[in-house]
Amino acid sequence: MILKIQHMQKAGRHAQMEIMGLAVIMILVSLGMLFIIQFNLNKEPSTLKKTFTQTQLASNILGSFLRTTADACAGNSIGELLKDCAENYNTPNTQLRCDANERSCDYTRETIASMFNSTLIAWGNQSYYFEARIPGQPLMKSFNGRCTGEKESKQNYIPTDAGTLTIVLDICS
Amino acid sequence: MPRAQLKMAETLGVIFVFLILVIFGFMFYAKFQRATFKTVLQEEQEKRSVEVAQRAFSLPELQCAANNIMIDNCIDILKLEALSRMLQADSALQLIYYDSFESSRIVVKQLYPARQEWKLYERTTNSSGSLFTPLPVSLYDPVAKRYNMGVVEVTYYP
């Protein structure tokens, strides 16, 4: 009788172990499935349009901007004004004068800010970083937000008497 | 309870659990498929919106030219005014552009020196969403011989 009870207890424990094993397998399989589904559902949305827009924005804004004829600066383009600003940065009195006796550097700085306000900032507060510099001398900077992640960068170089003028525009994600 | 009935109940229980598992699996699969379909659809719509924006941006009717050489990233204001006027006056003419622009709204805006706007094409649908693509461009004024800053705004309705 005692032997029979012991045998039954052994068999019960064995069955319990089997059920535990099955339960563990089921939990593992469910967790795996959940991870796969979660991974697929939370996939990054398509970046095709974003990439295209950022690339076009960076290159087109800088290109159009430098080509633009300044309204009040004797028909000079913004690119020419930047060149003048670079060449005469340390001697402000020799800088080209625009309407209201404004110097080329100041006029360009204001125009840049106004253009970015009506483009990148108006189209959804897009983060950007703009800089114009000659070797060892930053001329002007304009930025919105922080550029820490991915960015689309466009550079333009203009030869000047003060060295190569580098104009950088980063459009940030 | 007779042994046969017990066996039957056990079989039914197993089938029940199995069916529940199958139903759960199917639900997950359907959800997964729906998400995949949504992504593919979104990608396709974005692709089409980019295509429309590119077509509008490089429309040969509007390109600036100097000595018969096209200038990149530039729209001639006189050509733009003429095309805009023609398209607004003759809605049948818009149909010619439907193949290129589908259901979209294309507006060219001058941002500097003065603000100005030319509506080029408009054919909207009842679709709830839209995809907006702004493309900065130079606007050349051949009369004043000056370049202005502008933007081609393309709103695509999928």
Structure write-up:
The complex is a heterodimer of chains A (173) and B (158). Chain A is 51% helix and 20% strand. By secondary structure, chain A is of the alpha+beta class. Chain A folds into 2 domains: 1-43; 47-172, Ribosomal protein S3 C-terminal domain. In chain A, strand 1 and strand 2 form a beta hairpin. In chain A, helix 3 (78-87) packs across helix 4. In chain A, 26% of the residues are buried. The model of chain A has no long low-confidence stretch (mean pLDDT 85). The longest helix of chain B has 55 residues, at 3-57. Chain B is rod-shaped. Chain B has one domain. Chain B has a 6-stranded mixed β-sheet with strand order 1-2-5-6-3-4. In chain B, 28% of the residues are buried. Chain B is an alpha+beta fold and 158 residues long. In chain B, a hairpin with a 4-residue loop joins strand 5 and strand 6 (146-156). The model of chain B has no long low-confidence stretch (mean pLDDT 90). The chains are: A alpha+beta (173), B alpha+beta (158). At the A-B interface, helix 1, helix 2 and helix 4 of A face helix 1, strand 2, strand 5 and strand 6 of B.
Which helices and strands occur, and which strands form pairs?
The complex is a heterodimer of chains A (173) and B (158).
Chain A (H helix, E strand, L loop, with lengths): L1 H40 L6 H20 L10 H10 L16 H18 L6 E7 L2 E8 L6 E10 L2 E10 L1
Antiparallel strand pairs in A: 1-2, 1-4, 3-4
Helix pairs in contact in A: 3-4
Chain B lengths: L2 H55 L5 E4 L2 E8 H13 L1 H11 L2 E9 L3 E7 L8 E11 L4 E11 L2
Parallel strand pairs in B: 2-5
Antiparallel strand pairs in B: 1-2, 3-4, 3-6, 5-6
Helix pairs in contact in B: 2-3
